[in-house]
Amino acid sequence: MKKYSMAIAGFGGMGNWHRELLNEGYWLQNNKKNQTLNRLKVSGTFDIAENRQQHALACGLKAYKNMNELLNDPHIDIVLIATPNELHKDYSIKALKAGKHVVCEKPAALNSRELQHMIDASVAAGKILAIHQNRRWDEDYLTVKKIYEKKLLGEIFRIESRVHGSRGIPGDWRGEKKRGGGMVLDWGVHILDQALMMIPGKVKKVYATLTYVTNETVDDGFYAELTFENGLVFLAEVGTSNFINLPRWYATGRDGTALIEDFSKRGKIVRIINYNKNDAVPIKTAAGLTKTMAPRTDETIKEEDLPVVKSDIGDFYRNVLAAIEGKEQLLVSLSSVMRTMKLMEAVFSSAKTGKPVPFE
Ligand code: NAD
Predict the structure, then answer these.
(1) How far is the CA of 88 from the centre of ligand 1 (A)?
(2) Could you tell me the distance, in angstroms and rounded to a whole number, from the CA of residue 215 to the centre of ligand 1?
């Protein structure tokens, strides 16, 4: 079977993650399937930072002197673009024109116009352009997707997806607007993409606000409410000044509620088992009484473990190779990437006007 060599442009944190995945086998499920990934290896890198070039050499990789040298190497089949976001478009197009297949980190580009140029270049070159929307393999997301699809909470009418941290915007290129900084492009691209992949049908409207708690130039958080045509409201929120995190996921339906605390998938489902039993014992406080908000008793509800879904991130690259060989369509289709990109544009547009905007 053909072996593939990949070169990485931008060998920072995420570039090195790809090297660890492909050359060291980190994060792969320990199963036989992954032997098929043995035929794809990272062999070289180019980074403008001398210390990253040195790191490449220390990892046994070739450190190209510049991008042209990398692109002119006939042994390279695939180029991974893992630079700061503002370079994704130009580097991807150059690599495609040089006859290479391209894997590009998220966000694919800074806007839908740039992404369209990349797609056009891929079509013109007849080479694969794959975008690394890797969080489609997150097990917490896949678990909520299963809960939704199997109707384990009855008809779900609200899903809240949050990513909270307290470190503000990182002090690198992510803090610069023109370099594609800001949390909508950084984390929004993941959680908005997950929303679109989970809920079928169109998004009717988007209402969003951005936060500028730690600086005045790039969004360091956002809140986006998506109303789907089936009535479901999906709330996507990113915060970087949250010293107590709200749960990663909260989903509620007519028959139950699910909660996932964090990426480690701690959480539970609480489901109704007896609608008829009137077990409400009013809560009385000094200021009044409520029957509506009285907690349920064990006779009417049941607590269950989450139906955790397992995934294997190796499937991303396995699919890229199959797409290169014409055996499969890309799992991360370019049309789905474009839809997410346009949704991020709708988020910016709503935040600017302060009003909900129609989406699809
Ligand atoms: P980083 O700052 O750690 O790495 C970027 C690297 O690019 C740096 O080493 C820098 O020196 C290099 N660079 C800058 N300009 C360059 C140029 N002109 N040519 C070549 N190299 C250049 O950033 P990161 O966290 O690794 O992010 C890189 C990309 O990966 C971004 O697009 C980011 O959105 C993405 N990312 C994706 C995930 C994910 O889960 N998919 C996670 C983190 C980052």
Answers:
(1) 10
(2) 21
- Using the atom order of ligand 1, give the atom closest to the CA of residue 132: 41
Are both 78 and 210 inside the same structural domain? no
Which of 353, 360, 346, 337 is closest to 116 using CA atoms?
Answer: 337
User: What does each C-alpha distance from 58 to 53, 55, 63, 65 come to in angstroms?
Assistant: 9, 5, 10, 16
- Which of 132, 150, 175 terminates a domain? The answer is 132
Ligand 1 contacts CB of residue 52 (under 6 A):
yes
How many angstroms is it from 72 CA to the middle of ligand 1?
Answer: 22
pTM, two decimals, is 0.96
**In this predicted model, what pLDDT tens digit does every residue of 96-132 receive, in sequence order?**
999 999 999 999 999 999 999 999 999 999 999 999 9
Q: Is 350 in the pocket of ligand 1 (CB under 6 A)?
A: no
Q: Which CATH number fits the domain that encloses residue 125?
A: 3.40.50.720
Which amino acid, residue 222?
Answer: F
The answer on 201 and 65 residing in a single domain is no
